Amino acid sequence: MAISPTSIQQSAPEGWGVSLAHVQTGAFSASNHTLVSIDGFLEAPETVISQANLQDFAEITPQYPGVRAPLDPAICRAWITKLTPLLDQWFGPYGRPWEMQAWYSLVTTPPAKLAPIQCLPHVDGTDPTQIAMMLYLHRTGHGGTAFFRHRTTGLESLTANDFPRYAAAVQAEVARAGLPPAAYPTDGAPHFERVHAVPGAFNSAVFYRGNILHSGVIDNAAPLSADPAEGRLTINAFFRPAAG
Known about the structure:
244 residues, alpha+beta, Jelly Rolls, three-stranded antiparallel beta sheet, 3 helices, globular
């Protein structure tokens, strides 16, 4: 369920405070996509990681190559209160409150067991007003997030109008060249070009529009632990303006 700033709790639960002291805003590619990064996002990241060990992780959606556990709504209310003015500045304003959903996430699916759709860059939806946040809480050999351009169509982001053309082009490529190899996308070859990547430094958060083609940077030769203290742990969140 989406959390909105109604009946707001102004302060985060103990250990979950956030710092906005190190914000960097910028853009990437010829499409000038907005990208915001915040270093040192959590004031007590080790506390948050330790609490991940208490969660009931499960496979929530077939698209995500791993397991997730929802964040406490009180945390979402506190974070959205603090982030709302900045979301308006970076990506809006839309004149409506922001809503938020968030999960602990662990990539755990071995490359050989990936579904074909998981071997391609993806979007979180075709609504450009939906903003994604990735908070990196791992010190593994895996990386952050990469962004891509589809070579045939030239598309880097997908709207509802773009999607049919994109889907038809991908289906034609699969019919001609076969399914992609069972591996996480790296450089996107041969059908995608990687246009930008963020390194995923520990306790850094990045914000971008969820309709941009992207993928987690996963080392296909490195282990994927289901232990939150050892695996590729992130907190994923989506922000969207409340329905008018």
